[in-house]
Amino acid sequence: MPTLILVRHGRSTANTAGILAGRTPGVRLDDHGRAQAEALPARLAAIPLAAAVSSPLERCRETLAPLLAARPGLAVHEEEGVNECDYGDWSGRKLSELSGEPLMEVVQQHPSAAAFPGGESMRHMHHRAAEAVRTWNTRIAEEHGEDAAYVLCTHGDIIKSLVADALGLHLDLFQRISVQPCSVTAIRFTRLRPFLVRLGDTGDLDSLAPRPATGEDAGRATVGGGTGAP
């Protein structure tokens, strides 16, 4: 099965303003976020990419733009399943204001029970994102082979929920995961189980490039943790 390269969008104007952007239109990358996006092609240079998938929101499309410019033949696909969580009435509000809402404690401590007024539940967000990735895994494998890699640019809560899914963690534990703007998280899927091989990485990514098979089962975990990614 393919390797999924998850990229959180670069730092946005909402991030710096402390606003819960949600799906509010017009939220773009700030200057630092654009610099992060410009650095992404070099960070991913060693990795052959079969496709690029993006949340529909501007800040994700902006983050992928330099990568697409550097790889003119790379196809990009918009995927509603990895859109930002629909925070409903909370969208566009200051996080400092929301911190006093009773629901915020539920969001942080028991997210599987959290549903945003006028928006969606975190359970629904988790389910749709995981289903979207499974669909894309199948498509990429069929069109580009089992060892292909593809990049998917999305949002922090989506990435955290996908990591939890890959690790078999209950959604109530996903708030323990942290992914910074423009960080890279990689999940290598196999027939039986996925492996988390990068989490919130902001540095060199060359070791994610495909390497020759050694005859060992690529999906087998090494006793004692091993010295490299599975």
From TrEMBL:
Protein name: MSMEG_4193 family putative phosphomutase
Provenance organism: Streptomyces albidoflavus
Region listing for Disordered, in residue ranges: 206-230
SUPFAM superfamilies on file: Phosphoglycerate mutase-like
InterPro entries associated with the record: His_Pase_superF_clade-1, His_PPase_superfam, PGM_Phosphatase, Phosphomutase_MSMEG4193_put
GO cellular component terms listed in the entry, alphabetical order: cytoplasm
Domain of life (superkingdom): Bacteria
Pfam family, one: His_Phos_1
Binding site for substrate: R8, H9, G10, R11, S12, T13, A14, N15, R59, E84, C85, D86, Y87
One term of GO molecular function: phosphatase activity
Residues of the active site: H9 (tele-phosphohistidine intermediate), E84 (proton donor/acceptor)
